[in-house]
Amino acid sequence: MYDVWKNVLAEIEQQISTANFSTWFQDTSLLSTDNGEIKIGVKNSFYVKQLRNRYLDIIKTALTNNNIPITSVDFEVQSSAKSKVRPREVVASDNLVKSRVKKIKNDLENNTSDTGLNSKYTLDNFVVGSNNDLAVSAARSIIDSPGDRYNPFFLYGGPGLGKTHLVQAIGNELLKKNPNLKIFYTPISHFYSDFIDAVKLGKGKEFNHKFRKLDVLIIDDFQFIVGKEKSQEEFFNIFNDLYQLNKQIIVTSDRLPSQIKSVDERLASRLTWAGAFDLQLPKFEDKCAILRAKAEIMGAEIEPEAIEYIAENVNTNIRDLEGEFSTILLMSEVRGLTPLELIENGSINVNKSSKLRPISSKQIVEKVAKYYNLPVKEMCGKSRVTNIKTARQIAMFLLSKELNLSTNKIASEVGVKDHTTVMHGVKKIENDLKLNFTLRDQIEEIKEKIYG
To answer: Structure pTM?
Structure first.
């Protein structure tokens, strides 16, 4: 049956993009074909929905082409049974909450090894969505062939979007495949302090040698290398030596190397030799998927309406999203109410947003114009000059995303004739943001000025 499914997958791979194939079909299996009733194994319920909605016809065609009769196709989650966490009546107390938090903290602190990796970070519990699918596809490629196509692997994104999780998951998956690999994960701040200590103790060569023996080096939060010239030079030399030996280098940052002040241009260029992959803020559907997967992993019961409420009201990052989720589950257990009951009776008020104060459409237009050193009248005029047109489209984008204005209203605010121009402008900025990190930083800076 393995060979049959392998042939089916080979055909599917020809029909869809490499990224989508790696994301949705990598961990599937053919469980049975009895009486034409096809059962396909997947790793969680989110995959069931995605495969059924997006790829069912492709799957059926591939099965037929491999002479497999079909009467029905179903998907089955292949995971160990989990006990359900149900609300129960207990006395709410600070001591209970503190003891639970302390236990979780101790569990995490003790779950590390001399690799620096935390074994809780895996690809199985990293939810794939439209905000991260390309980065996950590259990560899978690294796991299959470290030091090859994506080397170095530079991962970019704001705080709380899962950078640490994804790069540590790569390390853990590589160790599963080959326990003899020498892998080391470290935040750049630890690299810096360890290097300074080694120099003070006259052990600079030993420090250097330790890193050069590695098969995989994972550096987290590279943006904090600012102002540390000696450490930067040491990292540059280690990077070159590992790269020449085809050893895998993985680096995360909250921005591109070229946007980090005082980073050597040679190093900045080398870090993005194989491109830069970003993790974006999750959309509503992605957030719902993350919370459903987290509930499944935890074996927790939470109503769909409660999940949608959390996803709708947390607009900062995944860390905050999961934090609110965990808080609601804990309160549910402590108070003996379901998550939805807590929300409906007002016990929970989730409202995490990057929006710090109410704003008007006029403020957005003025701030965008000022940021690009343009008079408002000129930006909202008919000029087709590239920089003016781009500023106008950014204003359209922010009016849409921050105030949820109609396209007709936006058209009148920025001085364009009709709503189709607005639709085109907003869509263009959305597409550019996927790969244009400079534009993303500019928009974040404008938002800070709007809400600051």
So the answer is: 0.61
Cα separation, 239 vs 271, whole angstroms: 9
More confident residue, 258 or 370: 370
Q: Is the peptide bond before 339 cis (omega within 30 degrees of 0)?
A: no
**Which stretches within 156-314 are classed as H helix?**
163-177, 188-200, 204-212, 229-244, 265-271, 284-298, 304-313
Q: What percent of the chain has pLDDT over 90?
A: 37
Q: Which residue has the tokens 């006029």?
A: 362
Residue 345, number of CB atoms within 10 A of its CB: 10
pLDDT category at 44 given cuts 50, 70, 90 is confident
Alpha helix ranges (H) inside 272-359? 284-298, 304-313, 318-335, 339-344
What CA–CA distances, in Å, run from 133 to 21, 298, 364, 444? 10, 23, 31, 22
Nearest to 199 by CA among 154, 241, 230: 230
CA distances from 379 to 324, 389, 391 (A): 40, 7, 7
407 versus 174: which is more confidently predicted? 174
Cβ–Cβ under 8 Å, residues 226 and 260: yes
- 417-444 pLDDT tens trace: 888 899 999 999 988 887 676 788 788 8
Cβ atoms of 210 and 238 within 8 Å: the answer is no
Q: Classify residue 59 by burial, with Cβ atoms within 10 Å: 0-12, 13-18, 19+.
A: buried
Is residue 27 helix, strand or coil? coil
